[in-house]
């Protein structure tokens, strides 16, 4: 039985830059096979130079990626993706501008063989607050924002720093649990958007450094309370956007930890996995994670000054 | 010279004010040559007098402006509705008024099945009329534990399934956390599935998948029989996906010499951009035939009122439910309107809640300023909660409306009690206001949601009775004559077909509803009981008894 296929929902109102970001991810897929599900084929969602072949249902993209539209049948399209050979590594659902992302995650959660990786919402730095006041779209836009694990504020170059700060503050007031990343032209670190990139980069690099994100690998030196660790990593104060890796529980059971924003989960993993958690976070804040680890282990026993060191 | 047939009738109700009734109609080349007295008609030269309708009443062939051909397909499943309903072959199925009666009917159907693995499917269940009793998978397990069973509710938004179906759909497991899947004390789903997201994974195993909305060839033929039985000669399929194979199949079936109706299928605006959709429909228009009138678009703005997915203006739902869902963004609708106006393609927009109606009006107004189109006749479909101000705007913008009169009977009590409350329930499907504000109006069944039958629909609009027998919205009643206009010329107008069908006058298609009773004499309270003998479509005669 293969591992569940991770599914990320990419949402946000019309014009926020979902398609631009998806194309950026495809250009930087770096060997990962992405399956993009779009609500409509419409004004071709994929940049022409990335397309290798096209038939009625499916667009084949350079690097083993694919794109197809789901129209009104998301479940059917997901099943189709799971049956592709070779199977994709990760499914991205680019939802329509009026879709409620948590409802999509709800549907994904019903299907065996899939795992919801999180909800990434794009917000247009210039217009998101206006959209959130729109006569018709207000509640829809606000629900999209409150559903997010990660909010990507796009088109940051089009607003003043003061306006950007005010937009960020407002987003935070709508959804305190979400992590907020500023980008331009949809250029986001793929590791921040997709769990699979995080794992992929950790083994085969290179990391797409941006000016304010950094990635570190944190290696526990022995068994620990895995749920407590995951919870710490998901705490807003950790400065982390995502974390993924393996740790050993006091019972000796190897566990997989997956964190996106404030959401975390742990699950049983194969014994041959080496301990190590890849953490992606905001520069300057991640460094403090070592301190946190000490706090954590101090609950369990005397801290070892050498353990829990973060390594680049 | 081609042959002329003159039909004599007890009475011909023409819908043409300059000759409102007549005794004879002359037909040549499938069209109406003349209407009047025999002496007037004889002036056209040699003819054959056909007296087969001498004791019948002829009306223009009825026009149903909002139905779905899938009704024809659904009749291959077990009917589980509360009200008596006639199938395409004329058999009237008693309504099932208790869950036990439904289970007995399912057991009888199950006993006749030969393939032990085939799914057993039912449709049109509505527990609203049974004190909202919940059907569980255990109930359906009493019919079979080995074959999957699924019963679709009348609303189309809820599916009841048995344990086997849940298992096949991968939902027979603990730990599900979804608002559309109620769990029993054992932590497993009860077998009720709410909303398309939860219905789809199981629906495919019990005969309900997405493609059901595209009727197959047999379904379309059966649908044609229902048209004959109800006096309908022009009917919409609102809306279809119109995939290439589906279009080919519809062209073939409606092209058969024996096909008794003109079908008007609308392309659903979903899963493609506005530009693509308009381009596709412009191309489809080229393939239209006399009996398959391709070339129109259906957009969907919001969901349904009883499903709490309709978009409501303040103060929202009466029971406090959160506002519903947008199915199409305002910008997308605005773009569709602009492109369609420019291309001369008509758009019908589903709006149920009054906020959805407002949005459609707000998007059309600037589009019309950019792209003036003086006879666009864009239609709001359902438009159930519009207030008088919105109707006045529709009138100013040149819009038409097609109101869901049947809904008022079937779910009016529910709306009064639960969804919108007494005041707005009174004004739902406001036919009087539509006519008084000059909005061209049709009324519809939305078959299979409610049964096809324009005389029943007319009765609903005239009497405004709910299922419990209350008159709801006295002021919004319309007169019998107005209702008869709505199910003929009124509906034809909303399809831009009023020059071809909808009245009996020279030059129009020889489309008649052939009736045993006179709907103008039978009385408002009995309008639904008008007996239909059959139809004439394009001069071809279809007797109900011969189907």
Describe what you observe in this structure.
- The complex is a heterodimer of chains A (312) and B (547).
- The two termini of chain A are 34 Å apart.
- Chain A folds into 2 domains: 5-195, 3-Layer(aba) Sandwich (Rossmann fold); 212-311, 2-Layer Sandwich (Hypothetical Protein Yjia, Chain: A,domain 2).
- Chain A is α/β, with parallel strands linked by helices and 312 residues long.
- In chain A, helix 9 (226-234) runs antiparallel to helix 10.
- The relative contact order of chain A is 0.13.
- Chain A has helices at 18-27, 74-82, 101-110, 128-131, 138-147, 161-174, 190-193, 195-204, 226-234, 289-298; strands spanning 5-11, 34-38, 51-54, 58-61, 65-69, 90-94, 114-124, 150-154, 179-182, 213-218, 240-248, 254-260, 263-268, 276-282, 310-311.
- Chain A is built from 10 helices and 15 strands.
- The longest helix of chain A is centred in the middle third of the chain and has 14 residues, at 161-174.
- Chain A is globular.
- The model of chain A is unreliable at 298-312 (pLDDT under 50).
- Helices cover 29% and strands 28% of the residues of chain A.
- In chain A, the strands form 2 sheets. Chain A has a 9-stranded mixed sheet with strand order 3-4-5-2-6-1-7-8-9, sandwiched between helices.
- Chain B is of the alpha/beta class.
- Chain B has 2 domains: 78-206, Diaminopimelate Epimerase, Chain A, domain 1; 212-537, TIM Barrel, CATH 3.20.20.140.
- Helix content of chain B is 32%, strand content 20%.
- Chain B has 17 helices and 23 strands.
- In chain B, the strands form 4 sheets. In chain B, strands 1, 2, 3, 4, 5, 21, 22 and 23 form an 8-stranded mixed sheet that branches. An 8-stranded parallel sheet of chain B has the order 6-14-15-16-17-18-19-20.
- In chain B, helix 4 (137-141) links the parallel strand 10 (120-125) and strand 11.
- In chain B, helix 13 crosses helix 16.
- The model of chain B has no long low-confidence stretch (mean pLDDT 95).
- The A-B interface holds A 13-14, 39-43, 69-76, 96-98, 100, 103, 106-107, 109-112, 135-137, 139-140 and B 170-171, 176-181, 196-198, 200-201, 204, 210, 270-273, 275-276, 311, 322-323, 325-332, 355, 359, 362.
């Amino acid at each position: 039985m293969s591992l569940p296929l991770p599914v990320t929902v990419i949402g946000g109102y019309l014009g926020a830059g979902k398609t631009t970001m998806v194309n950026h991810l495809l250009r930087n897929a770096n060997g990962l096979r992405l399956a993009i599900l779009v609500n409509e084929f419409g004004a071709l969602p994929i940049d022409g130079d990335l397309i290798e072949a096209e038939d009625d249902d499916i667009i084949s993209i350079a690097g083993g990626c694919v794109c197809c539209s789901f129209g009104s049948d998301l479940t059917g399209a997901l099943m189709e993706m799971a049956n592709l050979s070779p199977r994709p590594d990760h499914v991205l659902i680019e939802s329509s501008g009026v879709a409620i992302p948590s409802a999509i995650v709800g549907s994904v959660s019903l299907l065996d063989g899939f795992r919801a990786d999180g909800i990434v919402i794009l917000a247009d730095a210039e217009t998101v607050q206006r959209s959130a006041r729109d006569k018709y779209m207000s509640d829809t836009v606000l629900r999209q924002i409150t559903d997010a694990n990660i909010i990507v504020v796009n088109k940051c170059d089009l607003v003043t720093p003061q306006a950007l700060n005010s937009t960020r503050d407002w987003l935070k007031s709508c959804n305190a649990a979400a992590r907020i990343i500023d980008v331009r032209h949809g250029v986001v670190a793929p590791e921040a958007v997709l769990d699979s990139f995080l794992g992929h980069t950790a083994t085969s690099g290179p990391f797409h450094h941006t000016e304010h994100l950094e990635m570190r690998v944190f290696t526990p030196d022995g068994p620990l309370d895995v749920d407590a660790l995951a919870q710490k990593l998901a705490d807003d104060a950790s400065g982390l956007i995502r974390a993924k890796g393996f740790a050993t529980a006091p019972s000796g059971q190897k566990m997989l930890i997956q964190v996106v924003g404030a959401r975390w989960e742990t699950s049983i993993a194969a014994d041959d996995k080496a301990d190590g958690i890849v953490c992606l976070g905001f520069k300057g804040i991640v460094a403090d994670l070592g301190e946190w680890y000490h706090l954590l282990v101090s609950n369990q026993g005397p801290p070892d000054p050498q353990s829990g060191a973060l390594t680049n | 010279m081609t042959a002329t047939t003159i039909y004599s009738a007890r009475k011909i109700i023409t819908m043409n004010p300059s000759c409102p009734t007549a005794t004879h109609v002359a037909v040549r080349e499938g069209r109406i040559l003349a209407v009047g007295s025999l002496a007037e008609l004889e002036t056209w030269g040699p003819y054959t007098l056909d007296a087969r309708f001498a004791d019948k009443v002829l009306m223009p062939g009825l026009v149903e402006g909002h139905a779905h051909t899938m009704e024809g397909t659904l009749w291959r499943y077990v009917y589980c509705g509360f009200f008596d309903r006639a199938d395409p072959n004329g058999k009237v199925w008693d309504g099932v008024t208790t869950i036990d009666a439904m289970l007995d009917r399912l057991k009888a159907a199950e006993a006749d099945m030969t393939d032990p693995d085939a799914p057993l499917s039912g449709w049109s269940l509505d527990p609203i009329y049974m004190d909202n009793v919940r059907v569980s998978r255990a109930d359906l397990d009493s019919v079979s534990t080995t074959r999957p069973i699924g019963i679709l509710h009348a609303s189309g938004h809820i599916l009841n399934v048995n344990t086997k179906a849940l298992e096949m759909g991968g939902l027979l497991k603990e730990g599900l956390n979804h608002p559309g899947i109620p769990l029993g004390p054992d932590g497993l789903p009860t077998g009720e599935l709410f909303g398309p997201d939860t219905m789809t994974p199981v629906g495919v195993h019990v005969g309900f998948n997405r493609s059901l909305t595209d009727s197959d060839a047999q379904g379309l033929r059966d649908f044609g029989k229902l048209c004959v039985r109800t006096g309908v000669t022009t009917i919409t399929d609102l809306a279809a996906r119109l995939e290439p194979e589906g279009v080919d199949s519809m062209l073939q079936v409606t092209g058969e010499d024996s096909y008794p109706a003109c079908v008007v299928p609308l392309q659903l605006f979903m899963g493609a951009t506005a530009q693509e959709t308009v381009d596709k429909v412009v191309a489809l228009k080229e393939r239209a035939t006399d009996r398959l009138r391709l070339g129109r678009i259906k957009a969907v703005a919001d969901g349904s009122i009883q499903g709490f997915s309709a978009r409501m203006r303040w103060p929202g739902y009466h029971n406090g439910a959160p506002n519903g869902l947008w199915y199409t963004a305002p910008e997308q609708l605005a773009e569709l309107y602009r492109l369609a106006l420019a291309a001369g393609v008509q758009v019908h927009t589903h709006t149920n809640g009054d906020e959805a109606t407002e949005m459609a009006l707000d998007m059309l107004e600037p589009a019309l300023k950019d792209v003036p189109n003086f006879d666009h006749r864009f239609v709001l479909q359902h438009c159930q909660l519009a207030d008088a101000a919105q109707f006045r705007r529709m009138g100013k913008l040149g819009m038409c409306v097609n109101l869901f009169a049947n809904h008022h009977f079937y779910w009016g009590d529910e709306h009064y009690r639960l969804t919108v409350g007494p005041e707005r329930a009174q004004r739902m499907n406001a036919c009087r206001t539509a006519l008084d504000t000059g909005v061209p109006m049709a009324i519809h069944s939305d078959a299979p949601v409610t049964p096809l039958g324009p005389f029943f629909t007319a009765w609903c609009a005239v009497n405004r009775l709910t299922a419990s027998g209350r008159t709801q919205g006295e002021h919004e009643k319309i007169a019998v004559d107005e209702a008869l206009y709505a199910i003929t010329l009124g509906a034809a107008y909303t399809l831009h077909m009023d020059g071809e069908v909808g009245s009996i006058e020279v030059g129009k298609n020889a489309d008649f509803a052939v009736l045993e009773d006179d709907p103008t004499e039978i009385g408002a309270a009995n309008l639904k009981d008008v007996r239909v003998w059959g139809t004439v479509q394009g001069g071809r005669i279809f007797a109900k008894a011969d189907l």
